[in-house]
Design a protein that fits this description.
The complex is a heterodimer of chains A (253) and B (288).
Chain A lengths: L4 E11 L4 E11 L3 E5 L6 H7 L11 E8 L2 E2 L7 H7 E4 L10 H11 L5 H14 L3 H4 L12 H13 L5 E5 L7 H14 L4 E5 L3 H7 L2 E6 L2 E7 H6 L4 H7 L5
Parallel strand pairs in A: 3-8, 3-9, 6-7, 7-8
Antiparallel strand pairs in A: 1-2, 1-4, 4-5, 9-10
Helix pairs in contact in A: 3-4, 3-6, 4-6, 6-7
Chain B lengths: L1 H38 L4 H6 L3 E2 L6 E2 L2 H32 L2 H16 L2 H20 L7 H25 L3 H9 L4 H12 L1 H17 L2 H6 L17 H9 L7 H32 L1
Antiparallel strand pairs in B: 1-2
Helix pairs in contact in B: 1-12, 3-6, 3-9, 4-6, 5-6, 6-9, 7-8, 9-12, 11-12
Classes of the chains: A alpha/beta (253), B mainly alpha (288).
The structure holds adenosine-5'-diphosphate and magnesium ion.
Chain lengths: 253, 288
């Protein structure tokens, strides 16, 4: 693992029952770059993504084999602290899921849970996070409005701001634009492009143009296996595996 | 064919729905008719604020304040116990318990609702009243507190099941979002799930309260039934419901005493109606 690699996954398999949904995957995810996970529906992209901040712990019966190292630390070590892991590895979900609270309280939620309740601090964090998420200009005059009254695209950027507010190192995004209209999608894509300067981003998408636009590296999954992982430009222009080529040229999935 | 069936079912439901409203309206009118009869003899103010309930002495006195206090006291005791336990149990069932524990615990709680109230009264007389007497070292175990204690048990299933429904209705995505931000399960319950379920939880409490205020048999059997304003909850007292049940059979049909019981019924009806109305408001809010 070179210094530039943030996440080191070794021989990872994930089981929901007897059959693995993710099969023996090894991958090195680079720091401060965007890595896209592509592949047909049901191939295990979300399952894999959720192992990186241990969200699979919540699913009864889910079981993993292998190792996931973030900065060299095994996050599945029995001594590892889940709260600390999820603080370092944030997540943005497919459907925008702001809390039924104000815009301000949504962003302040993470910092508050981590013990920061000073009003001045929170105001600063909220402004900074919303600015980073390219939402500040649109909401700065109505921070006390109910978050669920925002448009879908604004809600998703709010969720990104909420995730950024606890200063994670890694941001996992599971099809963050799939529920959004094209204009909001473009905004979120621009945002990812901006964020990857400071954060390690892993993004699941089944939109190949999106993968091509925002990511530096791309991993192609099929039936729970990692088929190919390379520079995004290479995956899209000169894939090594026949199955990758079939997928990106739209022959299946 | 299918549409025809749908049509019939729809009409049957409509008729049932309308008839329940008609029945409710008739009950109200019936109460109102006989209740108003009473208020032409005794003023509403004297009725509600009079501190002596002596309907059969001469001259008779129809002050229901002792009965209002009695109902209020048992309700307060019951809710003070049932609300924290009920909400805690709902949280445990909905958010913490494994599915196996839940499979055992939930039907057990629901079973509490299936026990007839006369059985609760019986247990109250034989077990709980003596226990209260010796535990608090008082002369009689038949107190408002004893009544409240048993009512708490009776209100528990209502509170637990409605509160659990309310927690269940909170989208799982809120919980995921909170956990993904590094919040613990407990913080997630306190700061996300409970606030999101607030309306439903209030509705659960209100409906539990309605159950408590309307209960008759148990309180009749265990509270000692002295229609006087009690000095504390560890004294005997009497509720509105118990008064109606105890005196209805002994009164002369058409007498002022007889009508006064309808007056009590009217007050009770107004209170429970207001409680249910409020609960319904919160249930709607939870859904909307
Ligand atoms: N909670 C779950 N329980 C059981 N099986 C699941 C669960 N989540 C996903 N799976 C299964 O795991 C496989 C991979 O799913 P997923 O990771 O969601 O794929 P993708 O995100 O690529 O569409 C699918 O076959 C899916 O049915
Ligand atoms: Mg998915």
């Amino acid at each position: 693992m070179s210094r530039a690699d943030k996440i080191d996954v070794k021989n990872l398999s994930v089981y929901y029952g007897n059959d693995p949904a993710v099969k023996n995957i090894s991958i090195l995810i680079p720091e401060k770059k965007a890595t896209a996970l592509i592949g047909p529906s049901g191939c295990g992209k979300s399952t894999f993504l959720r192992t990186i901040n241990r969200m699979n712990d919540l699913i009864p019966g889910a079981r993993i084999e292998g190792n996931v190292l973030v900065d060299g630390q095994d996050i599945y070590d029995p001594k590892a602290d889940v709260v600390e892991i999820r603080t370092r590895v944030g997540m943005v979900f497919q459907r925008p899921n702001p809390f039924p609270k104000s815009i301000f309280e949504n962003v302040a939620y993470g910092p508050r849970r981590h013990g920061n309740n000073r009003k001045a601090d929170l105001e600063e964090i909220v402004e900074k996070s919303l600015t980073e998420a390219a939402l500040w200009g649109e909401v700065k005059d109505r921070l006390n409005d109910f978050a669920l009254d925002l448009s879908g695209g604004q809600q998703q950027r709010l969720c990104i701001a909420r995730a950024l507010a606890i200063q994670p190192e890694v941001l996992l995004m599971d099809e963050p634009a799939s529920a959004l209209d094209p204009i909001s999608t473009a905004k979120v894509e621009d945002l990812i492009d901006e964020l990857k300067k400071d954060y390690t981003i892993v993004i699941v998408t089944h939109n190949m143009q999106q993968a091509a636009r925002v990511s530096d590296k791309t991993a192609f999954f099929l039936s729970g296996e990692l088929i190919e992982f390379d520079e995004t430009s290479k995956i899209f222009t000169n894939p090594q595996d026949k199955r990758t080529e079939d997928y990106i040229t739209g022959r299946f999935g | 064919m299918k549409n025809y069936k749908d049509w019939i079912i729809e009409k049957i439901l409509l008729v049932l729905g309308i008839s329940s409203i008609v029945v409710l309206a008739m009950i109200f009118l019936f109460l109102l008719k006989d209740g108003l009869q009473f208020f032409s003899v005794v003023s509403l103010k004297d009725f509600l604020t009079g501190d002596t309930w002596l309907p059969t002495s001469k001259p008779a006195s129809f002050g229901i304040l002792p009965l209002l206090v009695g109902s209020f006291a048992v309700t307060l005791v019951a809710l003070t116990i049932a609300v924290p336990f009920g909400l805690a149990l709902a949280i445990y069932l909905g958010e913490i318990a494994s599915s196996r524990t839940k499979e055992i615990l939930k039907p057990t709680v629901e079973l509490l609702a299936a026990i007839p109230s006369v059985v609760y009264g019986f247990i109250g007389i034989t077990v709980i009243a003596p226990a209260v007497k010796s535990f608090f070292n008082i002369s009689s175990g038949f107190t408002l507190f004893t009544g409240g204690l048993i009512l708490a048990l009776m209100a528990l299933p209502t509170i637990v099941s409605i509160a659990e429904d309310a927690l269940h209705a909170v989208p799982g995505s809120y919980k995921e979002a909170s956990l993904a931000l590094g919040a613990s399960s407990w913080e997630t319950i306190v700061h996300v799930i409970l606030p999101a379920a607030k309306s439903g939880l209030i509705a659960a409490i209100m409906l539990g309260m309605g159950r408590v205020i309307g209960e008759t048999m148990t309180v009749l059997m265990v509270t000692g039934n002295a229609p006087i304003i009690p000095g504390s909850i560890f004294e005997s007292g009497r509720t509105m419901t118990a008064t109606i049940a105890a005196e209805m059979g002994e009164t002369v049909h058409g007498s002022t005493h007889y009508y006064s019981l309808f007056g009590i019924g009217l007050v009770l009806f107004t209170i429970t109606f207001a409680i249910n109305f409020t609960a319904d408001y919160f249930v709607q809010r939870q859904r909307g």
